[in-house]
Amino acid sequence: MKYTLVSVPALGQKQNTLLNITNKLKPFAEIHPFAIPDFKIGTLDALVLLSDELVRHDTAFEQSVNKTADVLSNLVRGQPDALVQDFLLVNDNRGPSLQETTQTLVQEMNSMDNLIKNKLNVYTQNRNTLQTLHRKQTGNYSVRNLNGVVKKEHCVLNSEYLTTLFVAVPKTAYKQWLNSYETLTSMIVPRSSVKVAEDNEYGLFSVTLFQRVVDEFTHKAREEKFVVRDFQFDEDALRKQQQELQETEEIEREQLTELIRLARTNFGEMFSAWAHLKAIRIFVESVLRYGLPPDFLSVTIAAEPKFEEKLDQILVDQYGHLGGVHGFDKQKQADTTEELLDHDLQTVNSATYRPYVQFHLEFDLERR
């Protein structure tokens, strides 16, 4: 979705100017008036400073809108363009002056952006926790939770000296394990290793040994690529684990619902704020370009596919006189560039320069 926002002098005849533009462009684009209120202007120096600030704000607003659209697209696979409000209607109730209106817009955008960012961070943390819990239940025996797999009869319990460890052994290393576990350290109970369970990658073996050699055994086992699991048998652990998973899933669903609601609500507001900022840019640049009192017409142009260059050439042909030598068509510009003596004017005469005020409001859904 791409709109070109254009402002041209009205010369006291806005309606005729609109008809003229519409008649010339309507075979190639959809044109609408972009009504902008008469803001309080202030001094010329203030306008110049504001013009520079608006460039930075415009970039930041675009980033915020796109980030929020990405949140919606990733969470609900939605179409954010369906949430865009009618930005062609710009109101002037945000502040009595250009500077105050701009500051209000920036504050509103920052507030919405930070709110979504914070909600997204909280949701992401909880989603990662949930994924970890699921991974522990569905991974192989080197990582998954052993509650419900290890039974009471697999363990030596309530012993002052002995304990049971559970070791994940690669299926290709069963023979190596059975031949070596008794000699990894001293104080291993002979023939105590039993295969408790297995999956496609690992077998889970128990081994009984004295508590005092647990650390040494763990270290030696790791050197042989055996994974000693950190596990203590607890008859209530499975119930606690299932309860934790259920609670985390409920929290994740609640946070997701809230995040989607906020993103949907704020996306339209953020896009509207961005359009308001574009309106301020058009007003400021039109005053700086065409002078006082403000007398210009602004329109939105949605070009039909493949007609953007054609529209651009029509506008340059129609309003090229506004920029003097800069307003000529591209061939004439090339032919007359050598006549420019002022270095600054030569700098202005670039591929992006137009003799009228022009900005783009582009929202790229294809990248999603």
Structural commentary:
The protein contains 9 helices and 8 strands. The chain has helices at residues 14-25, 44-76, 98-138, 174-180, 214-223, 237-290, 308-319, 330-336, 343-348, and strands spanning 2-9, 29-33, 162-170, 194-198, 202-210, 227-229, 296-303, 357-362. A 4-stranded antiparallel β-sheet has the order 2-7-1-8, sandwiched between helices. A 4-stranded antiparallel β-sheet has the order 4-5-3-6, covered by helices on one side. The radius of gyration is 34 Å and the shape is rod-shaped.
The gist of it:
The chain is rod-shaped and about 100 Å long. Helix 2 packs parallel to helix 3 and helix 2 runs antiparallel to helix 6. The protein contains nine helices and eight strands.
Q: Given the structure, what is the number of helices?
A: 9
Q: What's the number of domains?
A: 3
**Name of the top-level CATH class of the largest domain:** Mainly Alpha
Low-confidence stretches: 325-349
Query: What is the string of SSEs from the N terminus onward?
Result: EHEHHEHEEHEHEHHHE
Assign the CATH topology of the largest domain.
subunit c (vma5p) of the yeast v-atpase, domain 2
Give the amount of beta strand, in percent.
5-15%
The CATH architecture of the largest domain comes to Up-down Bundle
Task: Give me the count of strands.
Answer: 8
InterPro entries: ATPase_V1-cplx_csu (IPR004907), Vac_ATP_synth_c_sf (IPR036132)
Family: Belongs to the V-ATPase C subunit family.
GO molecular function: proton-transporting ATPase activity, rotational mechanism
Pfam families: V-ATPase_C
